[in-house]
Amino acid sequence: MSSPVVSVIVPNYNHKAFLEQRLESILNQTFQDFELILLDDYSTDGSKSILEKYKNHSKVTALLYNTVNTGKPILQWEKGIECASGDYIWIAESDDYCDFSFLEKMVGFLENRVDLGLAYSQSLDVDEKGNTLSHRLKYTENFDPNIWKEDFVITGIDFIHQYLKVKNVIPNASAVLFKKSLVDSLYFKSDGIKDLHMCADWLFWIRVIQNAKIGFLNQELNYFRNHVAVTRNHSDIEKQKKRVLEEVVIRKYLSKMDNLKQLELWIQVFRKWLTLSKSVLLDNFKILKILKSPKLIMLYSKVLFEVRIEPKLKSIRF
Predict the structure, then answer these.
(1) Nearest to 224 by CA among 311, 299, 147, 122
(2) 3-state DSSP call for residue 160?
(3) So what's the pLDDT on residue 308?
(4) Which residues are CB-contacts of 277 (< 8 A; sequence separation ≥ 6)?
(5) Which of 26-35, 150-159, 192-201, 228-237 is predicted with the least confidence, judged by mean pLDDT?
(6) Distances (CA, A) of 247 to 21, 239, 240, 250, 308
(7) How far is CA 89 from CA 5, 117, 118, 247, in A?
(8) H-assigned helices in the chain
(9) Measured CA distances, 145 to 7, 162, 257 (Å)
(10) Which of 110, 229, 117 is closest to 181 using CA atoms?
């Protein structure tokens, strides 16, 4: 039996309400040369009852349940990729869904350009009921020009230097197809990627495209679910602080890349941290522990002085 062209990985955690729509949007694709790998990170909402309905489907090659919740989506990605036998990987998040032509168009896009390692489509943000909330073009409007208005192909290095270093401009894995060959057996064992809860996907994309070209298809083929439980909803200060510390990890990784300038981005992330920080001594220790580099510590100290100390000095009347 020949290997499928695409391995579709569905990592689920407590998305029972959306799971059936997700799976049906995959199984009804116009392109059918794929396998389906189902994963569950110890859901407590009855998701298992939905997954069990599909376990004997001819497309399902694996259904794996965790016995404890890891709380880290990237660990599910690792497990799914280890099981995958396809040329391309599609991590189809369990609360999203897609157009039935998603695979046909994305595989066609990739195979028309053999130099492409990763491609993604445009997305629409939708609510719990599938009502459109916004177009993802708004997410990239801070770039001039906003290249996401058209299809494009660009080297991974140029994409990182111009866009991905600023923020995660590949915001939803469900819109992405990438070559499995770009992720080797040691991929998840370095650079601290498995320690990240919120930003692991950002680091994942940076690493995947460094030695490949990336393409974008300006068609709304993916529906990006926005609801209360999604990991990108950082509703409290501690989550926001954790998100900033993970960004620091990513910026340190980017600092290893040749000729990549991010001074202003470092200043922004330090200012963001100090805005959120309440316990000065403890929070300083947390960020300094990650920074380690004397140059970065010096820059952080400079920003700390400007944000915290200088205003106080100016307020003192002699």
Answers:
(1) 122
(2) helix
(3) 85
(4) 241, 283, 284
(5) 228-237
(6) 33, 12, 11, 5, 22
(7) 9, 11, 9, 25
(8) 16-27, 47-54, 73-83, 102-111, 156-159, 200-208, 237-254, 263-276, 280-291, 294-304, 310-315
(9) 34, 11, 24
(10) 117
Q: Are 39 and 12 in contact (CB under 8 A)?
A: yes
Structure tokens at 106: 């994305």
Assess contact for 209 and 108: CB atoms under 8 A.
no
Query: 39 - beta bridge partners?
Result: 11, 64
- pLDDT, mean over the chain: 94
One of 2.60.40.10, 3.40.50.920, 3.30.559.10, 3.90.550.10 is the CATH number of 6-225, namely 3.90.550.10
Using left for φ > 0, alpha for ψ between -120 and 50, and beta otherwise, residue 14 falls in left
* φ/ψ (deg, to 5) at 68: -140, 155
246 sits in the region (left: phi over 0; alpha: psi -120 to 50; else beta) called: alpha
**Of 61, 74, 63, 70, nearest in space to 34 by CA:** 61
Query: Which amino acid appears at position 210 of this protein?
Result: Q
C-alpha dist (Å) from residue 47 to 11, 25, 56, 85, 88: 12, 17, 16, 25, 26
Grade residue 236 by pLDDT with cuts at 50, 70 and 90.
confident
Within 10 Å of residue 119's Cβ, how many Cβ atoms? 25
Cβ atoms 12, 92 nearer than 8 A: no
- 155 Cα distance to chain centroid: 19
Q: Using an 8 Å Cβ cutoff, are 122 and 136 in contact?
A: yes
CA-based nearest residue to 216, from 119, 291, 97: 119
- What are the residue boundaries of the structural domains of the chain, listed by start? 6-225, 237-315
Helix (H, G, I), strand (E, B) or coil at 133: strand
